[in-house]
Amino acid sequence: MRFRLTPRETSFYDMFAASADNIVTGSKLLMELLGADSSARAEISERMRAAEHAGDDATHAIFHQLNSSFITPFDREDIYSLASSLDDIMDFMEEAVDLVVLYQVEELPKGVEQQIEVLARAAELTAEAMPNLRTMTNLTEYWIEVNRLENQADQIHRKLLAHLFNGKYDAIEVLKLKQIVDVLEEAADAFEHVANTVETIAVKES
């Protein structure tokens, strides 16, 4: 850790932790969606929308603090990138739930539960990692594991696409389901972006 003579604005750490905790909430709502019937999905979607709004508020608070702080704990562009990537995760998860409801999907294809389990695990790891930004310790295993999970998500996504195009579904249903699994894959990519940003920050601060 580099020695600093100037004080740093430390509230960023708490805000990043709050944003990551909110993502865990979103991942739990995705898990709920798996076991819900069509009548319960609308209510889950409303709760996910509220979580997404809370995520937006957290992101805006970080940007406001960034614009009003003279000294920041690490580079401004990295703070912006980390906040934006965390926000992207919530956006993708909310979009996936919304699409399930809007498209009135009766049954999600086998394999989606594996996608969501990967996202839930990545959410837990991200929430555990954010407080460690204060000390820049115990982060290496975090970004290695999230990158491994993203690779796993890629494999699951490819298998899902193969399943969707095996002739079992009609063309319209394929389009609906593909958009949903694609958005879940984008959420996995966004977790990797967060981990890569954390790695960049840690390297700069070492």
From TrEMBL:
It comes from the Bacteria. Gene3D superfamilies: Phosphate transport system protein phou homolog 2, domain 2. Belongs to the UPF0111 family. This is DUF47 family protein.
